[in-house]
Write the structure tokens for this entry.
Amino acid sequence: MTRPNSVIGRARRRVDGRAKVTGQTRYADDIFLPRMLHCRLLRSTEPHALIKRIDVSKAQAHPGVHLVLTGESFPIPYGILPVSHDEHALCPDKVRFVGDPVAAVVAIDEATAADAVDLIQVEYEPLRTYATPAESLAFPEPRIHDYGDEGNIHKIVALQFGDVDTAIDGADHVFDDVFFFEGNTHLPIEQHACVAAKDPEGKLVVYSSTQTPHYLHRALAKALAMPAAHIRVIATPNGGGFGGKSDPFNHEVAVAKAALILDRPVKICLTREEVFYCHRGRHPVLMRIRTGVTNDGRIAGMDLRTLLDGGAYGSYGVASTFYTGALQTVTYQIPKYRFRGCRVFTNKPPCGPKRGHGTPQGRFGQEVQLDKIAEKLKIDPADLRLNIVAPPNSLTANFLRVGTIGLAECIRKVVARSDWKNKFRKLPHGRGVGLACSSYLTGAGLPINWNDLPQSGVQLKLDRSGGVTAFSGATEIGQGSDDVLASCVAEILGIDTFDIRVVTGDTDLTPVDLGSYSSRVTLMMGNAAVQAAERARELLADAVSKKLAIPKDRVVFADRRVFDGEQPANGVTFQEAVCLAEAMFGTIGTTGSYTAPKTAAKFKGGGVGPSPTYSYTAAVVEVEVDPDTGWIVVPRVWIAHDIGRALNPTLVRGQVEGGVYMGLGEALMEEQAFRRLPAKLSRALVHKFPSMLEYKSPTSLDMPEIFTDLVEHPDPAGPFGAKEVGQGPLLPMMPAVANAVYDAVGVRVDEIPVTPEKILKALTAKAAGKPARTGPAAFPDIKWPEALLVTPPWEGGDGRASNEPPRKKRTAEAGIEANAGVRR
Amino acid sequence: MTMKVHLTMRVNGERAETLADSAKTLLEVLREDLQLTGTKHGCELGECGACAVLLDGEPVLSCLVLGVECDGRDVTTVEGLATGGQLHPLQEAFADHGAAQCGYCTPGILVTAKALLDKEPHPSRERIAEALSGNLCRCTGYLQIFEAVEAAALSDRREAGSVASAPSATNSAGVGPRATERKMT
């Protein structure tokens, strides 16, 4: 029988709330084990060089030092993507950026380890360094890596969906714009930390601030050549992740090895400077978008080119490359589309997934270009978008399956609440409003390691105490995944979230969940939790219906009771219900799992972009720009997010506002930028400001008022109809700010961040009668491969490319092989 | 080799004695010698505010204070906010209002907010933002933090009678009913 929700949809304290406000949450660096030693890494001072010789003798002889490791102890490479296992815990023979680890010292304490690190002498043979994609494209040799598509090009791809050139050339108007999005970093307040030890049985246990314990588990098994079953990875609650703790990291592999050798616990906690070197943040992306538009503002075709500065390693880069061109089609109708992307290696810390993973850059260009289109066609930007919103339950040109789409409602909400119609092009000079929209995945449809295994598993244990324990491999990184787990189970079993013990992110105890990335946890873990809880409810309902002698479909679970829906007084407590079920069936344990539906895209590269469903966001940003200085302030933001269903509105609002905050940081100030030291200081390529003081991020004083609306139309793919919220709301902020600057002072800053300096430069150009714009001048000529030709669905396409050679089939065996990790 | 110093502090209302490395910061003494790991660190350079504690009632960045400077002084950390088995109103409000997401900046923000409320029981939104401007938070966007501080200030007034009859050991003067109305925004 159905009943109103008692947990889902109510604003509640999160299950880990008390631990977090009392300082009792144990993050990785809070772990202190008996006989624990401390590790520090020596990092390269050269951006690109061969290691000719490492002399560790003085470090080894330093009092208090227990172990010094170098690259020769780590012959087996690893990496997050199967196609780019290009990392070693310590560089064996070559360094690729300033900060690349070359040696590890383990000592009685951190200070001793740091002293000994300074005693290590490394002789380098410098190689040509690559600071920019232009340099990497210009010089194929020497190669930063000996793999990749060509020279220093890591990945180059081309996909075409329909005859895009004819469509664009035949359109009423053609818009051709070049944009640049500077890189930025996650800046979690918690520095990465890791403790490794041998457990009493001699197996390896690793506690780490990782968003992806499952992938760390796999990487450790491979890099250390150990059976995965003898390794336990415990993801401690992350003090912020945002994508920055999603790769297996050097320091994790290094301390694991040290703990195995020394048979003592070994801890490492990175310095803030080292966190900047770990990076894996937003790729700097140069892009060119050529769009054909009809007189009434409909898109005839779109041709996108992106050039990604990947930094020194592969990381998630292949996926990031595809993501710069994947989701353009799920917001608006684009009947013909071409995407060409190129990621190059440079001698800088590796880029990877930051909140929005690869999509914010392309989204920025697309939404600013739409603003330019609306301006030229004299159509209100909101109306222009409303006119071309993608239809629900449809396939896009690139075979992404749009499910529910609340984008139009999001646009209408922010337009109404912000009083857009009375502000846009009507505010006094220096004040302006800008609008932008976006969409994001609710979980990547395909797992990183292609196999047929579930993407998320949940186990429940119920016992005669009335206690329920929920086990899941998902990782709490602040987003509230523990609360999602508890709330899904509590709702179905009619108990309170605080009645449930959640055990998460522990590869020994919990079933696999692929990790806290791609906004996948609420949907995937949530669905697995629902399935496990429904199975438990079935068992309890069987037992209680027999006890009460009523049909099973009359049994209701609510208020910690299990009772007859027609005579609520007739029932038992939840604990009694568990006892009845335990007596009838034996020990009560259930499982649930989730596997995403098969994707419609069958072409190579079509694995990036599909999702069980997409979230949608619209935002209006108001800015105040000083026309004399370019100084920019954001006083107000209106944002509406299509979440399907808010499981806990308090946490949902927190994710929306957190996304707005982080988006404003990217829009206005955050830059992961580099410079060359002068010749007398080695000409090394170094991070401009690897400190929190100099890497500017918004403080409490910089926050605007935020007016948040949630659009809730439950999506059948999500648990209780829920879609993602962790990443989507960040995306519209950057283009909305740029569009608002244009409304305020009539200049285009086609570049992120939109700094006062760039605004002033555009204002100065405007005053001099030059184009009122700051931004990149051109997109370089790149020798693109022949595009895979995929016919769009409305032209009869089946999701395959007509010109693609046959590929290997993916199987469950591939997953098992990779899991075993040992290849000798 | 560094020298050890004998430190006697009053930490969270209790006498705490330790023999600590003279080069250690208060942060390190608290976390490593006194096992009070509730105080966090994000930079150890005085840039992020995660390590804030109260030293004689004033918020300080414990990564910039040497342990030896704290001999004989009064230190309050997040572990000392709850009294008599009851969470501090700020803690209750932070948990209820979504002011702690990853929770890592939370201890530093809680003690900083406590110092504010101890002096100004009903601060404006602007005063709260100003007081917390040295504490970086990457998760929340700060608004739910502001709301939690405001809610705590309100609950403090609601429970003013009981607070007055059972003053907490760490609360200094100034807690209690106030004639001025809090401005609602």
About this structure: Chain B has two domains: 4-79, 89-165.
